[in-house]
Amino acid sequence: MRKYSFFILVIILVLLSGCTQSEESLRNDSIDYTKQAFDDEELKVNEETEQFSFYLPNDFKIKEKNDYNVLLENGDKSYILFVNLKEPKSSKVSYETLTEQYQDPFISKTFEQKDRFGYLFVVKIEENKYEVTVGVGGTKVTTEAKGNDVVEDAEAMMMIANSVQ
């Protein structure tokens, strides 16, 4: 009986380890998908505030709007969209502030294209929990995500940040 229990336990552990993404894979995939979203043409805006307009993916909903902030939801997750209209799309101020605040980020990657500066900045908060921030110039989007959600979240967040007008 012990042999069977041990055998079943080993199979379960192998299956569970196959479901989690390695940190290196998480890092590389997050960078690749976020860069692709940054490089894509600006998406057609479908939401407006009094100050700016932006693209909102289908699964996202607006919870609250303020002058320069929009609180977004996707299922049970919250996202904060912050827009500083005084900073151009080429601004590095938001990114530089993050690099000063966090000395050892999990991911710190920048993207440049024409007159735009974008970034992906991820900080590991605890085991399998990350603070994810993406930005383009004076626009940034931030959320907390589990490891398996970082890639998808970062891509969607970059689509939003990249679309702000």
Brief summary of the model shown:
With 165 residues, the protein is of the alpha+beta class.
Unreliable runs: 12-19
Mean pLDDT over the full residue set: 89
User: Count of DSSP E strands?
Assistant: 9
How many DSSP H or I helices?
4
What is the helix content? 25-40%
- What number of structural domains do the residues give? 1
Report how far apart the termini are. 65 Å
CATH architecture: 3-Layer(aba) Sandwich
Secondary structural class: alpha+beta
Let me know the largest β-sheet.
7 strands, antiparallel
Indicate the CATH topology: Protein Transport Mog1p, Chain A
Q: Proportion of β residues?
A: 25-35%
| Apparent shape | globular
Q: SSE string, helix = H, strand = E?
A: HHEEEEEHEEEEH
Instruction: Indicate the CATH class.
Output: Alpha Beta
Evaluate the radius of gyration.
18 Å
Strand order in space, largest sheet: 3-4-5-9-8-7-6
Overview of the structural elements:
This protein has 165 residues and is an alpha+beta fold. It has one domain: 3-Layer(aba) Sandwich (Protein Transport Mog1p, Chain A). The protein is built from four helices and nine strands, in the order ααβββββαββββα. The strands form two sheets. The chain has a seven-stranded antiparallel beta sheet, sandwiched between helices. Strands 1-2 form a two-stranded antiparallel sheet. About 5% of the residues have low confidence.
